[in-house]
Predict the 3D structure of the following.
Amino acid sequence: MNQARLLAGRLRLAAVGAAWGTGAAGLLVGHLRSPHAVAILGIGAAAGAMVALARPRWPALEHPFLSLAAAAAGASMGTLPEPTFFLLVPLVAAALAWPIGPADPDERPLPAWALPATFVFAAAVFFLQSANRHWSFASGGKDLGLFYQTYWLIAHGQPLMNTVMGMHVLADHMTFVDWLFAPLVRLHDDADTLLLVQAVAVASAVFPLHGLGLRLLGRARWAFTLSWLWLLAPDVHMGVMFDYNQTPLGTAGLLWTAWALVCRGPVAVLLATLFTCFCKGNFCLYVAVLALALGVRIVPWRRSLAVAALALGIFLVEIVVLFPWFREGGFRHWEFEELGERPAEIFTNMVGHPYRAATLVVNQPQKRRALLQPMLTTGYVGLADPVSLFLQAPNWAERFLSTHRTRWWGYYYGMPAVATALVGLALGWRRLHAAGRAGHRMPRYLICCALLTGLVPPYKTHDGDRRSMLYTLRRPYAAAPEDVETQRAAVRFIGKDPRLKVAAQYHLLPHLADRPAIFMLDRAAEADVVALQLNGGTWPEGRPAWRRRLQDLWATGGFHVAFCRGQSVVLFRGAGESVPCPAWSALIADRREAPAEAAEPGPPS
């Protein structure tokens, strides 16, 4: 009888372990999209059973019903990877590190050097990865090129007309923070200065997160986990690895604002609020919601309402007064192109065709990922406190209150949602801890969620990566080493004379934007110099249209080839004698008819 019970117990352990193993294997099935899904699931089941027999006290074995849910989700990954992935990750992470239970009363202290070392390490990785992208001529005219020109204009006291965008530097967003960092361009006049600013700002968020964690959770290692969840978030990686934008700065500012609201006095609150709001106009809404949400839980109501009122006041001034001043038509990012041009037409179509409107606004894969991925990185622990959902409202509104411009998943758009999700996580974790349900493995569980989300997603990033962008050493569209050298030579040949009006191909533009007039190729006819990489990216045009544009420009007779090395070509205005250039001659002689085409996929404007 004892033998039979022992055998039944071992069979039960093996079955539960096999179910967990099937779930874990399902993540690989969705990530690899392998035709041998059944074999991978079988191997996973066998591995899980062996682990269960070897480790019978594995906490996950005490939850057979959850193991069955994991197995069902794992088996579904081959046919329905999304949204199954967003259920499976927290299940598999829970199997690896069961998070619910009593906390460890004897937590070891955190070394004093751990947090500063983490900041330095993160800033170095963020900078080197993003700068290497730029150094290999894989950064773009939008956003790095246009913001480098903006900073250069401010730093040199030039008229503030951004020629990449064809508008005043404040016409797109109210990015007053540019005046704070632009002087750094006088110290090192290169676009990678902006990437360094961005890397340091994003990495600096580990400090307010640690401070929040200490205040709300009372444990140094738990607070340290919050910092690492920020650094491991795929949405943060996408933001850092897409050129330069003020959104990463504003997102770090959100976390500093949360820290100031909870842990510091009115001066720190005011400075953090103003910095965040002046990064971009839309961050005023994030600050207002953040202040109100924290006012519900831990911040005095007077402070909360004062900050929300200040942020909303700045937002109203920008929308009602400043945007119309700098841009005809005002703020441009709330658009419903498929539903109509004017508000009355949009409203009529929404009311008359609600299903179509809902499909356009909501039923979009990138939007669904934008909704779920930031919270998945935190294991949905924030849901233990419903206020965490309110914190997501500004980002969700930006995503869904549009059918076009703000629907993008990737780039820097998800970073604010990560910041508010982490604040929500701290609130939810605090509530679980108060109830005695935040176990000592909670940090491991959360780190597992972040790593699994970044390493084995069933979808690709906007750049085509099969894993989070920071884990890839080289961009797929980076220039070959020989092309890097010739493009550097072309940039040196053009020089830094600010009087030259330069038009440049997309990936060359950030290297030449230190001047009052830098254009994309659609305005090449206005330029004195045209910089080209004939085998480089042609965004926003497809290659046939790009080739036809250059042929038409050459046909005007207004330019000659002044520099040619490999595929790197520089045209100068005037009727001078062209240097020999086989690559350019071959392009001009290629008169193939261009088929109807869509523009190359690329970043949003």
Summary: The longest helix spans residues 2-32. The mean pLDDT is 91. Strands lie at 161-162, 167-168, 502-504, 518-519, 529-533, 559-565, 568-573. The radius of gyration is 27 Å.
